[in-house]
Design goal:
The protein is mainly α and 459 residues long. It has helices at residues 3-12, 19-25, 30-39, 52-60, 67-93, 98-108, 118-131, 136-144, 147-152, 166-176, 184-193, 228-236, 239-253, 260-270, 276-285, 302-312, 320-330, 352-366, 383-389, 403-410, 415-422, 429-437, 443-451, and strands at residues 197-199, 205-207, 217-219, 222-224, 315-317, 370-371, 379-380, 399-401. Among the domains are: 3-39 and 238-294, no CATH class; 302-457, no CATH class. The strands form 4 sheets. The protein has a two-stranded antiparallel sheet with strand order 1-2. α13 (239-253) packs across α14.
């Protein structure tokens, strides 16, 4: 398989590929490489930062806790959610199941959710991981019954006496059908089917029968005594649901510009079985996935950028709060979505200020350039200059880099080979001219120069 195709696959299905991995794969066929990718992602490894039984015991007695104890519990939740953020970043940087982790990241921006209860939010994150390559129909039902989603979209307030339509609306608008493929009456009627949905302290789903509406509902042109599960089934029986999901997957993994015939092809594979792994396998084996117009055209998300740099030069943040702060500056903090619709992709990641910061990022992370922790506009050229100005103040990013790992894999490469493996797509004339003027002294410095080009923002 052509090395450019392998690099493209591993940037879209993962977070890049190093020279050693590339040399192992280039003699294999596309089918062999894709099969290996899926086989290595079969296992599910949950992330855990909290002992569930201890946490459940705390919440069982929540009502009897004093104000100070409740505040302490709240702070513990906040700290553990930060821990979960860091654990997730670490997992993305060192995944055993590469495709599963990439898919988990994708679904987190589809089934958007937020929670201040670490046990429930940890369960939700692992639920995404569990179903990431499974059956989409089962996935929707599991997400809908999760404690975090029941809280986030006000499903707990949805009662027979006073139906709350928030979850029913977002279920169709954002999760399954898209705007324009249901009516306001469909929202009202389906909301009744989800009345009484709730959860226990341990996150387990329960139906509060006295709050559930057992009357008939009319939904998408049919009438019956529908349950919430029935509503989800009826939604997924609509082929539009398959189109909606396939388009979203295409925009994320292939190109933001939709190719109708490719979507039709994907829908035939996806509907009506809704097998996510089968769909993704078809995408990665298709000829059009590797077309020139799809390679090196996707703007990396902030997380892609951070994890991709780590893939080349392993980095470690000494202070976890600074890793989270850096995510905020870049505009994508895991577990803290901007709203229920999630982060917008593509060009929305880039504006004048954010581009300048992103171009500076490799120097900040790898070359001891320093960013003020008070704002993204304040930069210093060297750590020494910065330290002189801020003696005794903890305002710099504390990071260690493992250049030994980098040197073992990248130092034997020529400048052209380094360009080939670090930069995707076709280089602009300006970039080509700039690279001609850069004197190559060693792989380390040249790597940072390449990562500081606008082309490195693409994959």
């Amino acid at each position: 398989m052509d090395t450019k195709y392998i690099q493209h696959l591993y940037w879209r299905a993962g977070f890049g590929i190093n020279p050693n991995e590339l040399s192992l794969f280039k003699k294999k066929s596309k089918k062999e490489i894709v099969t290996t990718l899926f086989r290595n992602s079969k296992k599910i490894e949950p992330i855990s930062v909290i002992n569930a039984s201890d946490y459940i015991d705390l919440y069982k007695n929540f009502k009897s806790l004093k104000k100070e104890q409740r505040k302490k519990l709240q702070k513990m939740n906040q700290k553990k959610i930060r821990d979960l953020n860091v654990a997730w970043i670490q997992r993305l940087c060192n995944p055993h199941q590469l495709l599963r982790e990439r898919m988990t990241l994708f679904w987190a921006n589809h089934f958007v959710c937020k929670d201040n209860n670490i046990l429930h939010f940890q369960q939700f994150n692992n639920l995404l991981r569990t179903y990431a390559l499974g059956n989409f129909r089962d996935f929707v039902k599991a997400v809908s019954k999760s404690a975090s989603m029941l809280k986030y979209l006000n499903a707990k307030q949805n009662k027979k006496q006073s139906p709350n339509e928030n979850f029913a609306r977002e279920l169709m608008e954002l999760f399954t059908l898209g705007i324009g493929h249901y009516s306001e009456n469909d929202i009202k009627e389906s909301a009744k089917a989800f009345t009484g949905w709730n959860h226990k302290h341990n996150g387990a789903f329960i139906l509060r029968k006295r709050l559930h509406d057992y009357n008939e509902k009319t939904f998408l042109g049919t009438t019956g005594n529908f349950t919430g599960e029935d509503i989800i089934d009826k939604i997924l029986d609509q082929k539009q649901c398959a189109f909606f999901i396939c388009e979203k997957i295409y925009k994320y993994f292939v190109n933001t510009k939709i190719h109708p015939s490719h979507i039709d092809e994907m829908v035939k594979v996806f509907y009506p079985t809704y097998d996510i792994a089968k769909l993704m396998n078809h995408v990665f084996l298709s000829k059009w996935f590797y077309n020139q117009e799809n390679r090196g055209t996707k703007i990396k998300s902030p997380i892609d950028l951070l994890v991709g740099i780590h893939k080349v030069v392993p980095i470690e943040f000494k202070t976890t709060k600074q890793l989270i702060y850096l995510q905020k500056l870049l505009g994508q903090q895991l577990l803290n979505p901007v709203n229920v619709a999630g982060w917008k992709m593509g060009r929305h990641w880039i504006d004048t200020n954010s581009l300048m910061f992103r171009l500076k990022l490799p120097s900040i992370l790898l070359n001891n350039a320093v960013i003020s922790l008070k704002g993204i506009s304040e930069f210093e050229d060297t750590y020494k200059m910065y330290a002189e100005k801020r003696k005794g103040k903890k305002g710099y990013l504390k990071i260690t880099q493992d250049w030994d790992i980098f040197q073992s894999q990248y130092s034997p490469l020529t400048p052209v080979q380094l360009q080939s493996i670090l930069l995707s797509g076709i280089l602009s004339e300006n970039a080509q001219d700039l690279l001609k003027d850069i004197a190559f002294s060693n792989a380390k410095d040249y790597c940072i120069q390449l990562m500081s080009l606008p082309e490195y923002q693409l994959c």
